[in-house]
Amino acid sequence: MTMPKAELFQKDIPKSERVFYYASEEDDPIKTDEQEKKVEVGLPKDYEFIPKNIFVRMYSSVLYRVFWIFGQWYERRYWQAKFYGREKLKEACGKGYVIYANHTNPFHDVFGPAIAANCRIFTIISPVNLKVPGIGKFLPLIGGLPLGKTKEEKQAFNEAVDTRLRQKKCLVVYPEAHVWPYYTGIKKYPAGDRSFKYASRNNLPVFTMITTYHRRKDRKKGDLPRMDVYLDGPFWPDADKTESENNATLAKKAYDSMVKYSKKSTYEYFKYIKKSDRK
């Protein structure tokens, strides 16, 4: 079963349709047209991860400000989101850090980290996202960093990530990879601890951002949940350990943190059932 796309996050849907049966945690409940057609999506030729044109950079800065202002309304009014632990980020602001977040709502996952961090963020995304109608072409301008496919693209991507972190910005990573709508648990990271190399090699702190779900009091949007968002950390690399050792240690600390705070969810809007457990 492939879940509907935008409807899933914009309006209440019948309770009978809020079940997903999965074989493994790497199953993808929501597939783009390209994924369903098994089309390999790459980056445009000569793609610039960091624009050189000064006018493009200025436009990006203005667009990000508009994006952030709209995000304030969207998060706090539409999702009735409350943020806890933002004070933990204060010392890291202006120094560079990495946020690892659970992946449960593609619209909230765009705006939430920007509101939580309160500084310019850059988010690792799939190249498939560039094909999303309407918003896809704007994602790089508001901080989207698409993963490269070729050797050259991967090298340029890594250089861009390190450059943004040296510029003391915030990098956002979704280690669970696939969006599981309104999921109240935490999935194992498909890439293991490799995605923690960005913090390790730059000797920067790791924070976690965990979105939890709860019933609304007003119920004007039916059963659609509201959100509480928790920030935890910092978790630092150890200068006496190798990059590989730090990756593994940071991954475990981040995963344990996510699991701990995910238990604060009090409402299961979507039900996830493993096929082997299906009765």
Task: Walk me through this protein's architecture.
The chain has 279 residues and is α/β, with parallel strands linked by helices. It has one domain: 3-Layer(aba) Sandwich (Glycerol-3-phosphate (1)-acyltransferase), CATH 3.40.1130. 30% of the residues lie in helices and 17% in strands. It is built from seven helices and nine strands; from the N terminus they run H-E-H-H-E-E-H-E-E-H-E-H-E-E-H-E. The strands form two sheets. The protein has a seven-stranded mixed sheet, sandwiched between helices. A two-stranded parallel sheet has the order 1-9. Helix 3 (54-78) packs across helix 4 (108-117). The longest helix has 25 residues, at 54-78. The protein is globular. 34% of the residues are buried. The model is unreliable at 34-39 (pLDDT under 50).
Unreliable residue runs:
34-39
**How are helices and strands ordered from N to C?**
HEHHEEHEEHEHEEHE
Q: Mean of the pLDDT scores?
A: 89
Which structural category fits the helices and strands?
alpha/beta
CATH level 1 name? Alpha Beta
How far apart are the termini?
Answer: 17 Å
